[in-house]
Specification:
Helices cover 65% and strands 0% of the residues. The chain is mostly helical. It is globular and about 40 Å long. Helix 1 (12-28) packs across helix 2 (32-40), helix 1 (12-28) packs across helix 3 and helix 5 runs antiparallel to helix 6 (101-123). The chain is built from 6 helices and no strands.
Length: 137
């Protein structure tokens, strides 16, 4: 297995690679894959482009993403706390491999914020990973 040097300064190319590699694993994941496949049915390329825009906005300040994350995910059916845990775990693995610890941590914190908001909207409470983190909105 080839090892790559973690990236200290994210750019569009590294964010694009992160998003594409991450979602390739999401598609293969036995828990996450079916939910994403059912929701995206033939629209993976458009989703990946939107996710590159989203994470470029988060990581690079690109401001290329426009959308309502909660509204776009609310219609998904069958989503459980386990789906969120799997998504956050995979994201941590990918960001931890691709970037230096400080960059990975920032991306992971941003993902936790997204997951926390979606979890609250879809499950009706805060996720366990938000407990004790001072996020009681």
């Amino acid at each position: 297995m080839a090892s790559t040097t973690p990236i200290a300064t994210p750019d569009t190319a590294s964010i694009t690679r992160l998003v594409h590699d991450f979602y390739a694993d999401v598609r293969r994941d036995p828990l996450l894959g079916p939910v994403f496949e059912a929701a995206l049915q033939g629209r993976w390329e458009a989703h990946l482009a939107r996710m590159v825009d989203f994470w470029s906005t988060v990581a690079l300040g690109a401001r290329s993403y426009r959308g309502n994350v909660v509204a776009s995910h609310r219609p998904l059916g069958g989503v459980t706390p386990a789906h969120f845990a799997a998504w956050v775990r995979l994201w941590a693995e990918h960001t931890g491999r691709a970037f230096t610890p400080d960059v990975a941590h920032e991306l992971q914190q941003a993902a936790h914020g997204v997951a926390r908001n979606l979890f609250r909207a879809m499950i009706g409470r805060l996720p366990d990973f938000a407990e004790g983190a001072g996020h009681r909105h």
